[in-house]
Amino acid sequence: MSESKKLSKRQRAVLEDLFTGELDEQGVLDKHAVPRCLYERWLANERFIEQIERRIAHAYHQSRMILARHAPTAAVRLVGLTNCEKQETARKACLDIVSLQWSASYNTPAGAPPASQTPAPAPDLSPEAASRFLAALAQA
What we know:
Layout: H1 9-20, H2 25-31, H3 36-43, H4 46-81, H5 87-105, H6 127-139
Helix pairs in contact: 4-5
């Protein structure tokens, strides 16, 4: 990689603060004395944008890992809410479980069902019908 294609120390510092600091974009630019016009030129730089996109992808990956790590706990708590004395809370928990199960059965690694397996729209169920449905499933 030629020297002109590498990010400067200043650019790297700005990127680091944009993704790990507490400041917003303008605050980061002010901290590093980067005029808006210079930052706009950086945003037109392919290497700078590549680094931003890489950082964004990494942040989303970290978020997905956190969600995956806590999904079992959340599922247990949601199932526990189906026995809540507040009927509305229990009903909503049941509906969430049914909708989560439906979407999970069609989830692919890319996040979308293949065209051949696209599910038909879920029927609208009244709260009472959903409760009866879930009660029947629980007894089965």
